[in-house]
Amino acid sequence: MKLCVVIPVYNHGDAIGGVVDAVRAQGLPCLMVDDGSEPTCAARIRALADAHPESVWALRLDINQGKGGAMLAGFREAARRGFDHVLQIDADGQHDAADLPRFAALAEAHPDAVICGTPVYDESVPKGRLYGRYLTHVWVWINTLSFAIRDSMCGFRVYPLAPVLALIDAVEIGRRMDFDVEILVRLHWRGIAIVNQPTRVRYPVDGVSHFRVWRDNVMISRMHAKLFFGMLLRSPRLLWRKVAR
Fold first, then answer.
1. Contacts of 159 (CB under 8 A, 6+ apart)
2. Nearest to 6 by CA among 121, 94, 86, 104
3. CB 244: neighbour CB atoms within 10 A?
4. Fewer Cβ close by (within 10 Å): the C or N end of the chain?
5. Structurally, how many domains does the chain consist of?
């Protein structure tokens, strides 16, 4: 298995250095996708790549594409560099980098599956965000006719690149806060196994959040509606898959 950590970065100049250091401490290569960050953050990203050219790289998107757009670009760049798996982790430091070896080991043991982080929160999690996640969980369980995906919003996961590239070549995936949910549901529809892995998640007090309550909730609601009708079309096959097991 050739695994690359991909980090979508948008104006996380204060946090990205610590995340990259944590990834390097685990002996993993990483690709930072600079999603149109402002000049100070962009310079920080370039400096990190220049300091460790053998294992840290930067891909610059001149126009902000959203988290999903950054990850889609990261998938293709990782494949171009010869990797066959991508480990996604956020740039703001909320994910526990000490779990990187555990995710990598699970991907090695289940090379055709998505290794999906299931958050274990501390007291730093905003209660509104926590409760809002449960509504999305219910919609995901409906739209997959399954409880296989325990948490579809955690951005700490490992993807096998071959089925991901086949999916994004065939279907347009959401490019912003709808990305994490939609790509998991569509991979599940295609029969890709999900392995859930608990992981600690914290919300840094000085963290930078790009979640826009009204815009992103409307976007996510539209995505759930689109996926619901997609589930209806696929429901005979999804139900047969459950019976066949």
1. 75, 85, 86, 87, 88, 114
2. 86
3. 6
4. C
5. 1
Give dist(CA 45, CA 67) in Å, integer.
16
Q: Look up the domain containing 109 and give its range.
A: 3-244
Helix, strand and coil percent figures for the chain, each rounded to 5: 50, 20, 35
The residue ranges of DSSP E strands in 29-179, in sequence order, are: 30-35, 56-61, 85-88, 114-121, 157-160
The C-alpha atoms of residue 132 and residue 207 are separated, in whole angstroms, by: 19
pTM score over 0.85 = yes
CATH of the domain at 68: 3.90.550.10
Token pair for residue 236?
């005979």
How far apart are the two ends of the chain, measured CA to CA in Å?
28
For the record, the structure tokens of 217 come out as 């909730």
Residue with tokens 């310079």: 43
Give 106-163 pLDDT, tens digit per residue: 999 999 999 999 999 877 666 666 666 778 889 999 999 999 999 999 999 999 999 9
Non-local (6+) Cβ contacts of 160 within 8 A are 84, 85, 107, 111, 112, 113, 114, 192
Contact 62, 39 (CB under 8 A): no
Token pair belonging to 115: 């290794």
Q: Residue 96: helix, strand or coil by DSSP?
A: coil
